[in-house]
Amino acid sequence: MAAPSPQNKVSGAGSSRKLLSALLCFTEERPTWTVTDLASELDLSVTSTYRYVALLREVGLLDSASQNAYRVTDRVLSLAGACEAAQAPLAEIALPVMTRVRDEIDETVLVARRGGAAAYCVDRVESRRPVRLQFDRGQAMSLHAGSLARMLLASMSTSERARYLEPVLATLSAARTAMLTDEVLDHAHAVGWTESFEEVDEGIWGCAAAITSQGAVIASVGTAAPIFRSDQACRDRMIELIRQAAKEISVEVDRHWASSD
């Protein structure tokens, strides 16, 4: 009798999650993995991990990088292309607005989009000052930390938030936890903006506003500055500029989709 194929062995919702988790371990920071390292990372047996790797190789998503290590193949580029094709060109649309705001306040301005359980920097225009916020394109951010990411957390449903926050809340201070209640997040979602004090880096204040398309939040735009050079009047001005930037970008995103119909 023929041995079961990897497809038959890797079945069920739990196995599907583990299979996808194995694929998502491959990142720019960690582009190659051995089966042993993957098994340790995913808390799986080496035998099970071999099955997942075999299936991913079978469908052309993984290939050998060396004798013992594996890498993703160029086939994943089609997934990246599909992602871009299904979304408005956010960075291209937002860049002129972001640049204008940066020129007015001379602080770094960023746009972020949620992907699963993290926020990712889509693009940024950096301050020209020596002390500034620095983020790389594609950099991941925790959804519960900082105004830019928390704005995206606020746009999630109550049940989605609860699933995300359940393992997180116990690790946070009471002050930080207070910023993540449904009441606070619902308010941020309703008004379309929020601010943060020293949530990601000590001595840094930030604000962010929601970018929408057809009424749904698709991203956030924000800025951050050292508290020592951002008094209340300065912060109020930056909040107003960021909220206006979010509105302008939202209008341009909807215009893009209207012209694509």
Automatic annotation (TrEMBL):
GO BP of this protein: negative regulation of DNA-templated transcription
The entry's keywords: DNA-binding, Transcription, Transcription regulation
Domain of life: Bacteria
Molecular functions (GO terms): DNA binding; DNA-binding transcription factor activity
One Pfam family here: HTH_IclR
Domain IclR-ED span(s) in chain numbering: 75-255
PROSITE patterns to which the protein is assigned, alphabetical: ICLR_ED
Chain coiled-coil ranges: none
InterPro entries documented for this protein: GAF-like_dom_sf, HTH_MetabolicPath_Reg, Tscrpt_reg_IclR_C, Tscrpt_reg_IclR_N, WH-like_DNA-bd_sf, WH_DNA-bd_sf
Entries under PANTHER family matching the protein: HELIX-TURN-HELIX TRANSCRIPTIONAL REGULATOR, ICLR FAMILY (PTHR30136), HTH-TYPE TRANSCRIPTIONAL REPRESSOR ALLR (PTHR30136:SF24)
Stated name of the protein: IclR family transcriptional regulator
Taxonomic lineage of the native organism: Bacteria, Bacillati, Actinomycetota, Actinomycetes, Mycobacteriales
